[in-house]
Amino acid sequence: MAANPTITIRTVHTMDDLNAISRIEMAVWGMPAEEAAPGNIMKAIILNGGVTHGAFDGETMIGMALAFPGVRGGRRYLWSHMAGVLKDYQSQGIGKALKLAQREWALAEGYDEMRWTFDPILRGNARFNLHLLGCYAHTYYENHYGEMQDSINVPAPTDRLEAVWRLKDARVKSVAAGHTPKIYAGALPDDVLILRTGENGPLAMPDDALTAELVAIEIPSSGLNALPRDQVLRWRLALREALQRAFAQGYRAVDLLERDGRAFYLLRPQDRYFLYVLSCADDSLYTGIAADVYKRLAQHNAGRGAAYTSTRRPVRLLAAWQFMSRGAALKAEAAFKRKTRSQKFALIEGRAPFHDAPPVDVGT
C-alpha cells in the first residue's frame, strides 16, 4: 500500500490503460514516443505470461510497472522491465507499492525471484533497490542499452547493475510487512574501493586483493545534474572498475550506507561454490562442484578426484561458474549434465552466465 491513501494499484490490460502506460513512460523518462513500449506490445506480453500494473489516483493513472517472464541458464524469474511514477506523485511510497504488487502477483504465479537493471551511479536507484526493497546485485553490464534519447539517463555509457530480488527471503518478507531491515548500521568500513575527493570526483583505492567481510564503494551523493559533465564519466568508469573488481572476487552489493551526506555501496562476499567442467584425455567432458576449483583440478589429475577421471588423465579445466551455495551449485550441475554436448560447449565458449551464476576466468 502506498503512503498516499488515495492511491490504488491494480493489474491492467485494456488498450486504453496500456496506452496510458506508454504516456507515463514518456513523461517519467522524458523519452520520445518511439522509445516507449507501445500498447500492442504490452498486450502481447500480457497474453504470454507477463503483467502490467497501474497506480491510480481515482481514475487517473499516475504510475506503472511492466514485467514479463525470463529464463536464464534454466532458472525461471519475472523480469521487471520498467516501473515509474509521475513527478508530482514521487516520494510518496508509490514506487515501492508497485514493486510489492508485482511481488504478490509473481508469488501467486509460482515465481520466487524477480530481476531488473538499474543505473549504479544514481543514489536514489541504489537506495530504493538495495536498501528499501532488499535486493542484491553481483552482475555488471557495460553500456547495456547504448545511447538513450531520454532526459534521465546521464551523458555517459549506460552501464547497469542487475538487481536480484529473492521474493521469499526473510529480509524481503520483512520489507513486504512494512519494515526496512538494515544489513549494517555501523561506521564506514575500513576497506573502501572508491572515495570522493575534495572536488567531488572519484578516487580509486589501491588495487589489493579483497579479503574483508565488508567493503564500501562511494557513489555521488548529489544529483547528477549538479556534477560537471567530465565528472559524470569519471564516476561512471571508476564505479565500473570497482564494482567489476569486487564482483570478480566473489562479492555482491547488498545495501546502501548513508553517512554525513555521503552514500556508499556495501558489499559482502558470497558463499563461494563452483560448478566446473573438465576436458578429459579421451575428449569427453566431466562436470562437478567444488569449493576450490584448482585444488579439485589437482586432485583429478592425481587420480583422486573421481573414478571417471582417474582413467582419463590428464584433465583440463574448461569452464567454471561461481554460486552462492553448495545447494545452488548442485542444482546447476544436474541441469548442466542434462544438456547436449553442443549446448555445453555453447555455454563454455560464450562465457554465458548459468543458473544466475557468473562465469569464472579459468585462463582457457
What CATH architecture label of the largest domain applies? 3-Layer(aba) Sandwich
Order of helices and strands: EHHEEEHEHEEHEEEHEEEEHHEHH
Shape: globular
In angstroms, what separates the terminal alpha carbons?
51 Å
Q: Strand portion, in percent? A: 25-35%
Q: So what's the CATH class of the largest domain? A: Alpha Beta
Structure class: alpha+beta
Radius of gyration (CA) equals 22 Å
How many E strands? 15
The CATH superfamily of the largest domain is: Gcn5-related N-acetyltransferase (GNAT)
Number of domains: 3
Widest sheet, order of strands: 1-2-3-4-5-7-6
**What's the helix count?**
10
The quaternary organization reads as: single chain
State the major sheet.
Answer: 7 strands, mixed
Q: What's the quick description here?
A:
By secondary structure, the chain is α+β, with helices and mostly antiparallel strands.
